[in-house]
Amino acid sequence: MSNNPIKPGRVTWTSPSNIALVKYWGKYGRQLPTNPSISLTLSQAYTETTVAYAPSDKPSYTFTFEGQKKPAFEKKVVGYLESIRDVFPLVSRLDLKIDSRNTFPHSSGIASSASSMSALAMCLVDIAKQVSSSSELDLRLASELARLGSGSASRSVYGPVAIWGDNTTTKEASNNYAIPYAEGIAEIFSSYHDDILIISKSEKSVSSRAGHALMDNNPYALNRYEQAHIHLGEIIAAMQNGDLEKFGSIVEKEALTLHALMMASEPPYMLMEPNTLAAINRIQTYRKEKNIPVYFTLDAGPNIHLLYPHQYADDIHIFKNELATYCADGRIIEDRVGTGPLKKA
Ligand code: PMV
Questions:
Q1: How far is the CA of 59 from the centre of ligand 1 (A)?
Q2: Who contacts 212 (Cβ-Cβ below 8 Å, separation ≥6)?
Q3: CA of 115 to the centre of ligand 1 (A)
Q4: What is the maximum alpha-carbon separation in the chain?
Q5: Which end of the chain has fewer CB atoms < 10 Å from its terminal CB, N or C?
Q6: Do 29 and 3 meet the contact criterion of CB atoms below 8 Å apart?
Q7: How far apart are CA 203 and CA 180, in angstroms?
Q8: Closest-lying ligand 1 atom to the alpha carbon of residue 27
Q9: Nearest-angstrom CA–CA distance, 192 and 106
Q10: Which residues line ligand 1 (CB under 6 A)?
Q11: CB contact at 8 A, 93 and 54
């Protein structure tokens, strides 16, 4: 980094959420994954973050959400910025004023950590680029910084497909940061739909952080980590061959395994709701009846992600009237695969 005096400035980035196909569940050390994961990057559910920066000998950080003070969020963001000083020393030389907003409503049941941490990370590496007058945006560093805020956020830095975690199928992958994965992936996946059925808006009874920690003593943990490696190899092959049936069967197995691991934790817990199961049953019978490759996945919560190719959007549009009856206030959030973070002028 050059020693040019730092001029004050401001950057704005949007960054989307992502949906894991092979799930990251379990971590060690400093937010490192116990197994590799792969995700589709989304486009409609995103965070927009603006960071105003100025040189300072005594750095101070402020955070607002939609222009309003939110002390609980601010505490997290300030704690995060202080925690990354070793990886990103520039934060020790800057005052930062951060404002953030989401396109999806707060407490809609959609996790915002992947989009918010990746949007902030994009702003930070963009500031580093400007301060050092470099021409390159360091996306690996952005992914690493995002990971330190929230593991899954490491994957939101790239679209349409990202892989995070050491594995033998993609040798360039790393536990430290995610990589984009385009090699041979069938075109159909870059316009895939992901509709999110909001089964419940309530706060989860067990946070992801606590859930990851419970993997340490989960009796099935080692088998699970091995299975994730196998699933990663298989799903990459299915995505390269455009084999939607194989793709869907792995995605559904991954979702159910994630929740089975929760039920097999000590203490055991359950995040699916009765309507999660009812909707899953209906999706599976609809798929058989209509012969349409629509599959579900789940995050660490009761809500369902409905994955299907664009060519079936009209059929699924009609089906969604029925699925809405399983949702809180009939709510379904429509999303699509996208290309990743964008800089706003
Ligand atoms: O990024 P975290 O710590 O919120 O964990 C996310 C874990 C899952 O969403 C369940 C799976 C994943 O890979 O995104």
A1: 31
A2: 25, 26, 27, 151
A3: 12
A4: 66
A5: C
A6: no
A7: 32
A8: 3
A9: 25
A10: 20, 23-25, 37, 113, 150-152, 208, 258, 299-300
A11: no
* Stated pTM of the model: 0.96
Domains of the chain: 9-183 (3.30.230.10), 188-336 (3.30.70.890)
User: Whats the size of the chain, residue-wise?
Assistant: 345
- Residue identifier of the C-alpha nearest atom 9 of ligand 1: 299
Provide the pLDDT for residue 4. 61
Distance 151 CA to ligand 1 centre (A): 7
Tokens of 70: 């939110």
Q: How far does residue 36's CA lie from ligand 1's centre (Å)?
A: 12
Token pair in block for residue 251: 């995605």
- Nearest-CA neighbor of 111 among 208, 13, 253, 251? 208
Residue 161 in contact with residue 182, Cβ under 8 Å? Answer: yes
DSSP for 230-293, written as a single string: HHHHHHHHHHHHT-HHHHHHHHHHHHHHHHHHHHTSSS------HHHHHHHHHHHHHHHHHT--
For residue 197, the Cα-to-chain-centroid distance in whole angstroms is 17
Give the pLDDT confidence of 70-110 residue by residue, as tens digits: 999 999 999 999 999 999 999 999 999 999 999 987 666 67
Tell me how far the alpha carbon of residue 320 is from its chain's centroid: 24
What phi and psi values does residue 328 have, to the nearest 5 degrees? -65, 125
Q: Which atom of ligand 1 is nearest to the CA of 111?
A: 4
The residue whose CB lies within 8 Å of the most ligand 1 atoms, and thus the one to mutate among 32, 118, 207, 208, is 208
Alpha carbons within 13 A on the beta-carbon side of 235: 28
pLDDT in tens, 198-223: 999 887 889 999 999 999 999 999 99
